[in-house]
Design a protein that fits this description.
The protein has about 140 residues and is α+β, with helices and mostly antiparallel strands. It has one helix and nine strands, in the order αβββββββββ. It has a five-stranded mixed beta sheet, with no helix packed on it. The protein is elongated and about 70 Å long.
Length: about 140
């Protein structure tokens, strides 16, 4: 009886070690596919009630830029749809405008109109990079 318990324990231990190795390997694989630095772009920017312009720089260029609200409603444009002068992509939604010039490198110019509502407002700017997104939350007081 003692020998049977030891054989079963060895199999269980070996199985647990295999499961642990598989779990660690899978975790490392998933973490390596997840971009945690937002491609160098800030995760949040804030404007005062007067509005203004901010330039956000990243480490990789976007090929699609979109502005949307919490519900996902918004506007987008990609570099194959040129909406401005001098090869610039211009996207406007509600009170926010994003200008992106692909030839200038990974920079987004974000412009907020003055806020006369006396309420905080939020929109999200997202840029498609490779097979993932860089997202910037834009808050205006």
């Amino acid at each position: 009886m003692t020998q049977n318990k030891q054989k079963g324990t060895g199999r269980t231990t070996c199985h647990l070690i295999r499961c642990l190795i598989a779990f660690i390997s899978l975790s490392c694989l998933l973490i390596s596919c997840w971009n945690t630095d937002n491609y160098g772009y800030p995760s949040k920017i804030t404007f005062g009630k007067e509005g203004g312009n901010k330039v956000c720089s990243g480490t990789s260029s976007c090929y699609t830029v979109e502005i949307y609200n919490y519900n996902g409603d918004g506007e987008s444009a990609s570099i194959d749809v040129i909406k401005g002068e001098n090869d610039s992509v211009i996207v406007t939604y509600q009170w926010l405008t994003v200008t992106y010039k692909p030839s200038a490198g990974p920079q987004l110019k974000i412009t907020a109109q003055p806020n006369h509502t006396r309420k905080e407002r939020k929109l999200y700017v997202s840029g498609m990079v490779d097979d993932s997104f860089a997202e910037i939350k834009v808050v205006q007081h």
